[in-house]
Specification:
Number of strands: 6
Helix content: 25-40%
Number of helices: 8
Structural class: alpha/beta
CATH topology: Uracil-DNA Glycosylase, subunit E
CATH class: Alpha Beta
Radius of gyration: 16 Å
CATH architecture: 3-Layer(aba) Sandwich
Shape: globular
Number of domains: 1
Distance between the termini: 34 Å
Length: 231
């Protein structure tokens, strides 16, 4: 398990992007970058672990599952260049947490306000399904982010996997938690030592195409998160 030594977010980003701890994920992310998707055949893929990004003074931390094979694994920024990110950043913009509604590349001018976005697992996994062991291997990075983001008061967990990983990371970071973890559900809010954890369905196409997650539902989660964080 990696033990991050970074004392700043930029230094942590450098540590994360050089990690090769999980052989299956390393092989997959690099294979995707070699074969590419036809639409991106002329692009150079990032093909490394993807660090979090955003406002270092953020009061809201948004935690997703993992980078998409042709999204963050291609662009080098979490939720950037894929359909899930399209949904998320439009919602963050509507909530006043982002300066623009689009996220297509690392240098597209996107800036987050009072918000930081990260993932439970930092490498793109096959079938978008990291193993529990890979989740646990990556968890110290989220723990370190929680310690460096000293103003965070709300963690928004996008999906059950992120909720589970976030809960474990909060415990490892020494943050007081309830004796029993409430069951995941969209809109569930849990009081914890730093403030609150707020749950949302992940903005994946599986959820957005079927109507399981609507823009109004995601907007409501972010509005509640802002209120809880005092953002």
């Amino acid at each position: 398990m990696p033990v991050p030594r970074a004392t700043t977010l930029p230094a942590l980003a450098t540590e994360i992007s050089s990690c090769r701890a999980c052989p299956r994920l390393v092989a997959w992310r690099e294979e995707v970058a070699r074969t590419k998707r036809a639409a991106f055949r002329d692009e150079e893929y990032w093909a490394r672990p993807v660090p979090g990004f955003g406002d270092p003074g953020a009061r809201i931390l948004v935690a997703g599952l993992a980078p998409a094979a042709h999204g963050g694994n291609r662009t080098g920024r979490v939720f950037t260049g894929d359909r899930s990110g399209d949904w998320l950043f439009r919602a963050l913009h509507r909530a006043g947490l982002a300066n623009q509604p689009t996220s297509i590349s690392r240098d597209d001018g996107l800036r987050l306000r009072d918000c930081y976005v990260a993932a439970a697992v930092r490498c793109a996994p096959p079938a978008n399904a990291p193993s529990p062991a890979e989740r646990d291997e990556c968890r110290p990075y989220l723990v370190r982010e929680l310690r460096l983001l000293r103003r965070v008061r709300v963690v928004v967990a996008l999906g059950a996997f992120a909720y589970d990983a976030t809960w474990r990371a909060l415990g490892d970071a020494g943050i007081e938690l309830p004796a029993r973890r409430p069951r995941f559900g969209h809109g569930v809010e849990v009081e914890v030592g730093l403030g609150a954890v707020v749950c949302s369905f992940h903005p994946s196409q599986q959820n957005t195409f079927t109507g399981r997650l609507t823009e109004e539902m995601l907007d409501a989660v972010l509005a509640s998160s802002r209120a809880l964080a005092g953002a």
